[in-house]
Write a structure and sequence with these properties.
Layout: H1 2-15, H2 24-37, H3 48-77, E1 81-85, E2 89-92, H4 95-102, H5 105-115, H6 119-123, E3 129-131, H7 135-149, E4 154-159, E5 167-171, E6 174-178, E7 191-202, E8 205-211, E9 214-220, E10 223-235, E11 242-252, H8 258-262, H9 266-275, H10 294-318, H11 325-328, E12 329-334, H12 340-352, H13 357-367, E13 368-371, E14 382-384, H14 385-391, H15 393-414, H16 418-424, E15 427-428, E16 434-436, H17 437-444, E17 447-450, H18 453-463, H19 465-470, E18 475-477, H20 484-490, H21 493-503, H22 525-550, E19 559-564, H23 573-588, H24 592-595, E20 601-606, H25 614-631, E21 640-645, H26 650-656, E22 662-665, H27 677-683, E23 687-691, H28 695-703, E24 709-711, H29 718-724, H30 732-742, H31 749-757, H32 768-787, H33 789-801, H34 808-820
Parallel strand pairs: 1-4, 1-12, 4-11, 12-13, 13-17, 17-18, 19-20, 19-22, 20-21, 22-23, 23-24
Antiparallel strand pairs: 2-3, 5-6, 7-10, 8-9, 10-11, 14-16, 15-16
Helix pairs in contact: 2-3, 2-5, 3-4, 4-20, 7-34, 10-12, 12-13, 12-15, 14-15, 21-22, 23-25, 23-30, 25-31, 30-31
The structure holds 1-beta-D-glucopyranosylpyrimidine-2,4(1H,3H)-dione.
1-beta-D-glucopyranosylpyrimidine-2,4(1H,3H)-dione binds at residues 134-136, 139, 287-288, 373-374, 451, 480, 672-676, 694.
């Protein structure tokens, strides 16, 4: 039989003539073939979208080629693999990133020109893959890029939502949500694997039985749903490696419900089967508020169970002894969302593989590590016991057993300190008895990562203080990073050329440390000229975009001042708007000679509010109300424009960031775990106006505090300031701008009342009043710096030059070495 297979393989190989060719003629032929055979249009008549589809399929062929080679190589070498479990991945667009990482961008651009198309125009046809909410999800995407580029044997696992994050549309200044039908026109970047599917079970009961003289628990599930794999190749840059992001979609189970059939209820049986698909239907749009929803729990278990079946199957292909599991498998839990995987691994090892509890627990403890992204204990997920017991009855029992053993261990260390035991317990007693998913992760994972130094400190001293005292060695700092491939090479090609030219190499694209070499030229007038031209061209693109979307014309000489991120009270977009109102008020009270000294500004805000988040929605409306007034005031003209960019997403960020002069990161100190947007701005030479929070503290260390505009209360001052509560008085300026909103200066007086209440009368939890004066000073410092364009450009160059630490390549190297214990596995060329 083996001889047969070998002969077949040789024949097959003989029929292929080597690798796909990447010269311009071959690419043209390929694109046209896809127009005709994949898109099924005539090669003499197709539009831009069809051209994009054909182009994407031709790129996909090349991705698949490398992806096959990579997986064959991984299989041959059988290294320890890292499995990255995340409920969210915010991939954005794939076309430009793919051709750049594959190293065939110029060839494609040429091929398309010869066919009469423009690569950039076609790239605009692609929609975003928005399978995530914000920072956490985009971080996962950046880390996948780094894992591929650094040749790590990695797999991403997640959910293939039918509807990604909602589209934001603005009607009369109010946010409305529309579904994101991202799969309606097909998705060329995924490969459906109908044969890679696993049953995932829910509900039912647990029975105790005696098998071979041993008592065991048997879970008799009540529902089975099929998880079907959709594979998304992720190409590395400057390597042949392309890794896999495997996303699961729910499909009705193949096992037909015979009972319904025999009772003749054929139609209902089919309708009920179809309901299974709802599990992967829609992404939850509230980041960090968990409402104990059954569907959410089912989503978590669904993707975890399918992923673990896949991982164990792959392990069993080559190994039969689970003692070897930790040598081959590292599991990374992205926030607590996938932490039910701990109970699932225990269930599989104990109930299905018949390992004893201690052995199984030993294995679980050596394979899992977790990254926490939350800051407040309230942001940590809890699942009501009743819900968990109904959806996953056996898992609840397992969690109780884990907790029982944890409590026994804690008693040995802490004796009868029951307060401490109850804080550390996985089970929270109270009105709604719940499972604390973070405590489950902490009990098991060998590493607990924070996402910046400040954040790790918060975890150690506040959120998980008790656990830190018990297991200090588990706690590690893995300051976040972003990929320079997406955030410079793809989104700012002019900057990319400048950096490569001045460094005399493109090697920084894989080795970001080299970017520090720019420091040497920070004062070079020739570099200044190129740098300013680059910025102007990017601003021009952004200005055109703004005009198309909002009809507001903006001056390129103005400072483009940007705050783009999810709208949250703690991120303090409201502080920004109140600052804008102050600026407006000042301009209104100036005479003409004073006005000539004003630095013109375009204030750009963008971001989505969770659909049920009233305060965030009011902030969006206030932004529009202020924009309406300011932009139409002839006294102001080009001195101040206010723009809200609707439907902020990854591809909008790619356009906005390179065109910004200044970016704002205003979280109340101690509330932003890290922040990654600031890193993208930094790489693009945009100056940062920020509180000393999250990663901004480390950015200041890298570029020097003098090269950014820091303001506001420090992390360790915030608790005491809050204590003072009502006795804290904001400045008169603050009272005045809030009064303007309250008095209806911008209309909608009643609507904005509750928003104003959040920052006044002692209720100012996020300390806007306290920080306002210092915020205005930082803004004034930014104005002064902008007037001196030589100084500004120098600060801008030093920002880019100091951004090396904030590459996700550095973060991933730290994870690989300190948490996962994995080595690169490079596919030979
Ligand atoms: N984060 O995006 C989210 N969603 C959450 O539910 C909790 C945290 C963010 O994660 C980013 C990546 O670690 C951080 O940079 C950011 O500070 C944090 O808010």
């Amino acid at each position: 039989e083996f001889g047969d297979r070998k002969a077949k393989a040789e024949k097959m190989f003989g029929l292929m003539d080597g690798f796909l060719k990447n010269d311009s003629i071959s690419l043209q032929k390929d694109i046209l073939d896809h127009v005709e055979f994949t898109v099924a249009r005539s090669r003499f008549n197709f539009d831009d979208f069809e051209a994009y589809q054909a182009l994407a399929h031709s790129v996909r062929d090349r991705l698949i080629e490398r992806w096959h080679d990579t997986h064959l190589h991984f299989k041959k070498k059988d290294p320890k693999r890292i499995y990255f479990l995340s409920l969210e991945f915010l991939m954005g667009r794939s076309l430009t990133n793919s051709v750049i990482n594959l190293g065939i961008q110029d060839q494609y651009a040429d091929a398309l020109t010869q066919l009469g198309f423009d690569f950039e125009v076609l790239a605009e046809q692609e929609g975003d893959a928005a399978l995530g909410n914000g920072g956490l999800a985009r971080l996962a995407a950046c880390q996948m890029d780094s894992l591929a580029t650094l040749d790590y044997p990695a797999w991403g696992y997640g959910l293939r939502y039918q509807y990604g994050l909602f589209r934001q549309i603005i009607v009369d200044g109010f946010q409305h949500e529309q579904p994101d039908f991202w799969l309606n026109f097909g998705n060329p970047w995924e490969i459906e694997r109908v044969h890679v599917s696993y049953p995932v079970k829910f509900y039912g009961t647990v029975k105790e039985e005696v098998l071979n003289g041993k008592k065991c628990k048997i879970w008799i599930p009540g529902e089975s749903v099929e998880a079907v794999a959709y594979d998304n190749p992720i190409p590395g840059y400057g390597t042949r490696n392309a890794i896999n992001l495997r996303l699961w979609a729910a499909k009705p189970s193949d096992q037909y419900d015979m009972e319904s059939y025999t009772t003749g209820d054929y139609i209902n049986a089919i309708v009920n089967r179809q309901k299974a698909e709802t599990i992967s239907n829609v992404l939850y749009p509230d980041d960090r508020s968990y409402q104990g929803k059954e569907l959410r729990l089912k989503q978590q278990y669904f993707f975890v169970s399918a992923s673990l079946q896949d991982i164990i199957r792959r392990f069993k292909d080559l190994h039969s002894n689970f003692d070897e599991f930790p040598d081959k498998v590292a599991l990374q839990i992205n926030d607590t969302h996938p932490s039910i995987s701990i109970a699932e691994v225990m269930r599989v090892l104990v109930d299905e593989e018949n390992l004893n509890w201690s052995k199984a627990w030993g294995i679980a403890c050596s394979i899992f590590s977790v990254t926490i992204h939350a800051v407040q204990p309230e942001g940590l997920e809890k699942i009501p016991v009743d819900l968990l017991g109904s959806v996953l009855p056996r898992h609840l029992e397992i969690i109780y057993e884990i907790n029982h053993r944890l409590m026994e261990e804690l008693k040995k260390s802490f004796g009868q300190d029951y307060d401490r035991l109850s804080r550390m317990s996985i089970v929270e007693e109270g009105a709604v008895k719940s499972i604390r998913m973070a405590n489950l992760s902490l009990a098991c994972c060998h590493t607990v990562n924070g996402v910046s130094r400040v954040h790790l400190e918060t975890l150690k001293t506040r959120v998980f203080k008790d656990f830190y005292e018990l297991w200090p060695q588990k706690f590690q700092c893995k300051t976040n990073g972003v990929t320079q491939r997406r955030w410079i090479v793809v989104s700012n090609p002019s900057l990319c050329s400048i950096i490569s030219k001045w460094l005399g190499t493109e090697a920084w694209i894989r080795n970001i440390d080299l970017i520090a070499g720019l420091r040497e030229y920070a004062k070079d007038p020739d570099l200044h000229t190129e740098w300013k031209n680059m910025k102007r061209v990017n601003k021009m693109r952004l200005a055109e975009y703004i005009e198309t979307l909002t009809s507001v014309k903006v001056s390129l000489d103005a400072m483009f001042d940007v705050q783009i991120k999810r709208i949250h009270a703690y991120k303090r977009q409201l502080l920004n708007i109140l600052g804008i109102i102050h600026r407006y008020d000042c301009i209104k009270n100036m005479d003409e000679s004073d006005k000539r000294r004003v630095v013109p500004r375009v204030c750009i805000i963008g971001g989505k509010a969770a659909p049920g988040y009233e305060v965030a929605k009011k902030i969006i409306k206030l932004c529009h109300a202020v924009a309406d007034k300011v932009n139409n005031d002839p006294d102001v003209g080009d001195l101040l424009k206010v723009v809200f960019i609707p439907d902020y997403n990854v591809s909008v960020a790619e356009l906005v960031i390179p065109g910004s002069d200044l970016s704002q990161h205003l979280s109340t100190a101690g509330h932003e775990a890290s922040g990654t947007g600031c890193m993208k701005f930094l790489m693009n030479g945009c100056l940062l106006l920020a509180t000393a929070d999250g990663s901004a503290v480390e950015i200041a260390e890298e570029i020097g505090a003098a090269n950014m505009f820091l303001f506001g209360a420090k992390v360790d001052e915030v608790p005491a300031l809050r204590e003072k509560g009502t006795t804290l008085k904001g400045s008169l300026q603050f009272a005045r701008v809030v009064r303007m909103v309250r008095d209806g200066y911008f209309g909608f007086k009643d609507y904005f009342k509750s928003l104003c209440d959040t920052v006044e009368d002692g209720g100012d939890f996020y300390l806007l009043g306290y920080d306002f004066a210092s915020y205005l000073e930082a803004q004034a410092a930014a104005d002064r710096a902008f007037v001196d364009q030589v100084k500004w450009t120098q600060m801008s160059i030093l920002s880019t030059a100091g951004s090396g630490k904030f590459s996700s390549d550095r973060t991933i190297e730290e994870y690989a070495q300190q948490s996962w214990g994995i080595e690169p596995c490079k596919c030979p060329f």
